Amino acid sequence: MMKSNTAKIISSLCYFSIFFAPFLFPVVVYFVSEDNEVTEHARKSFMSHIFPAIAIPLGIIIVFESGYSTGSIILSALLFGILSLIVAIWNIVKGIKVLIQT
Questions:
Q1: Which stretches of the chain drop beneath a pLDDT of 50?
Q2: How far apart are CA 45 and CA 27, in angstroms?
Q3: What is the pLDDT of residue 3?
Q4: Which domain holds residue 53?
Q5: Which of 39, 43, 32, 48 is nearest to 93 (CA)?
């Protein structure tokens, strides 16, 4: 159970930070917060922010390994775009769920 509205807001900002400080904000909150639930949300949001960061190098490797073929470039862009969209939607949903928790 969260202790205060401030804890809810900070926890939800960890998820929403994918739009303004994807790695920095959850890490700072994780190390600064003394509330266990807030640090748990910071950890989860940080992990979800890592997925698109892993997809970028994989997409680049696919493009280089395929010899710059048009199909691999389009496939990599589609996969990265879809993954980024899914992660963004997931973070928005989680941030809203944290805010409306009682």
A1: 2
A2: 9
A3: 64
A4: 5-100
A5: 48
The answer to whether residues 13 and 92 touch, using CB atoms and an 8 Å cutoff, is no
The residues near 43 (Cβ < 8 Å, ≥ 6 apart) are 26, 30
CB 38 within 8 A of CB 6: no
Please choose, from the candidates 62, 59, 4, the residue with its C-alpha nearest in 3D space to the C-alpha of residue 33. 4
Q: What are phi and psi of 68, to 5 degrees?
A: 60, 30
Count Cβ atoms within 10 A of the Cβ of residue 41 and give its class: 0-12 exposed, 13-18 middle, 19 or more buried: buried
Q: Which of these, 46, 60, 44, 54, lies nearest to 83 by C-alpha position?
A: 54
Residue for token pair 């769920």 = 97
Number of domains the chain contains: 1
Query: Is the torsion defined by CA of 62, 83, 7, 10 positive or negative?
Result: positive
Angle at 97 between CA 99 and CA 1, to 5 degrees: 70
Which positions ≥6 away from 50 have C-beta within 8 Å? Answer: 23
